[in-house]
């Protein structure tokens, strides 16, 4: 764990693009810029394969296998990011502005609770994954209510829009939470079209 903490600290200091591997996923990884870390969590500006900023993600550090920098893939991604910046599609959701606001709020609580609280207060769709119900489950939706140890979470099933599934998700079950991504904005559009009364 201390090696991961050190790698994250180095990435923050040097503003490096990194590959982030979760435990149990040797081939799959996330790419992004590490913004901040606290005792248990790390905040990352995610980058998608097209070089676009794809939301803010909070990872539980205990769920991470390794953090890697300086690979050929990351060098390629840096070139793709430069192209996205030059062509004006790097930050289509104004995520950089959200980062500034988020960091002002993150002093009082953990990075995870700050993200969940901001999503709840501002009616933002989020994606949660981790050990929810069964390992590896991922849910996209909105927080219905907040409690001391858990949230009531309404998630969207794109294959059945008539349902309004709700689950209780304990903070301890969440290994990854993301906001302001292409997926969360796509889901927001679906919610506003088919279930607006449930959302706002």
Q: Identify the strand order in the major beta sheet.
A: 5-1-2-3-4-10-6-7-8-9
Strand residues, percent: 25-35%
Distance between the ends: 40 Å
In angstroms, what is the radius of gyration? Answer: 17 Å
Q: Look at the structure and give the mean pLDDT.
A: 91
Briefly summarize what is shown.
The protein is an alpha+beta fold and 200 residues long. 34% of the residues lie in helices and 34% in strands. It has helices at residues 2-14, 72-87, 95-105, 111-121, 182-194, 196-199, and strands at 17-22, 30-37, 41-47, 53-60, 64-69, 126-130, 137-146, 150-155, 166-170, 174-179.
Structure write-up:
The termini are far apart. A hairpin with a 6-residue loop joins strand 6 (about 125-130) and strand 7 (about 135-145). About 35% of the residues lie in helices and about 35% in strands. With about 200 residues, it is an alpha+beta fold. The model has no long low-confidence stretch (mean pLDDT about 90). It contains six helices and ten strands; from the N terminus they run H-E-E-E-E-E-H-H-H-E-E-E-E-E-H-H. A ten-stranded antiparallel β-sheet has the order 5-1-2-3-4-10-6-7-8-9, sandwiched between helices.
Chart the SSEs and their pairings.
Layout: H1 2-14, E1 17-22, E2 30-37, E3 41-47, E4 53-60, E5 64-69, H2 72-87, H3 95-105, H4 111-121, E6 126-130, E7 137-146, E8 150-155, E9 166-170, E10 174-179, H5 182-194, H6 196-199
Short descriptors:
alpha+beta, globular, 200 residues, 10 strands, 10-stranded antiparallel beta sheet, 34% helix
